[in-house]
Amino acid sequence: MLPAARIVWILWVVSVSRTEITFKEASAFTWWRRQVIKHDIAGMHAYFTGLEIPVPDKFPPFTVIEERQTIFTPPHLYRGNLNVPLHQITDRRAVTHVYAVYVMLTALPDPTKSPAFWNSIPDSLIQLNQTTFFSTDLREYFHASYWNSVNPETGLPAGAAVLWKIRGMLGRAFADKLASKVFRVAADSLAEISDPDIHVTFSKALRIADEIVEAYQQSWPKIHKLLDENRVTAKFKSSLSPGGLIG
């Protein structure tokens, strides 16, 4: 059996060769800066792949902007942007965070793409809010776990913070795998776990994920205690258009 480090290295090499990382023309993208970004994105690509999170081999080009803006994802990739604020161009975590946002936006089904969604407003907004929650909190956990630290300036949203505490209690490998199964449950079975209370929805997803990860749910009492002590709440702020979710 190959050691874990060897497997990660192999995944990284495959990611470097398969992932098409492109840049818009900008003086900030020096030859060296492009190599660093390619290295970091390939590493995060390999990390997501190892957790069976679906990652695109092609994505919009990186560009630099003066201020923080929403990722622009039109139907054609070549017209889109992965926006990196100019003052953060040398911040490796900022660049991989932009990539993580894009991966999780594309990994979970977008409920607004279904005509039924628009015919069921406002009831369907619960589904949209739940999808937004899982996309945001899982990406923040995965990004922090990849870098092995939490950004002290931003911290973590409530759901990601619970996963981080599970990580501290039960180890990175277990928590990463658990989070990946939470993603799978949210992607495949959102209706099964849906509840107007996002804490209940998240708790159901965690319990099912734990059933998938370990026999006899040996760790569930500890996880359940963490959930009781750390109630998950979320504030949602999204803009809608018939073409899909923005922001």
Describe this structure in words.
- The protein has 247 residues and is mainly alpha-helical.
- The chain folds into two domains: 4-107; 111-246, no CATH class.
- The chain has ten helices and four strands.
- The strands form two sheets. It has a two-stranded parallel sheet. The chain has a two-stranded antiparallel ribbon with strand order 3-4.
- A hairpin with a 2-residue loop joins strand 3 and strand 4 (244-246).
- Helix 1 packs across helix 2 (31-50), helix 3 packs antiparallel against helix 5 (125-147) and helix 7 packs across helix 9 (198-213).
- The longest helix is centred in the middle third of the chain and has 23 residues, at 125-147.
- It starts with a helix and ends with a strand.
- Residues 239-247 have low confidence and may be disordered.
For the largest sheet, list the strands in their spatial order: 1-2
Overall residue-averaged pLDDT value: 85
Described by its quaternary structure, the protein is: single chain
- Ranges with pLDDT <50 over ≥5 residues? 239-247
The share of residues in helices is 55-70%
Backbone CA Rg = 18 Å
**Overall morphology:** globular
Domain count: the total is: 2
Classify the beta-strand content into a percent band.
Answer: 5-15%
DSSP, total strands: 4
Task: Please summarize the sheet with the most strands.
Answer: 2 strands, parallel
Q: What is the straight-line distance between the termini? A: 43 Å
What's the order of the H and E elements? HHEEHHHHHHHHEE
- Structural classification: mainly alpha
Structure annotation, total helices? 10
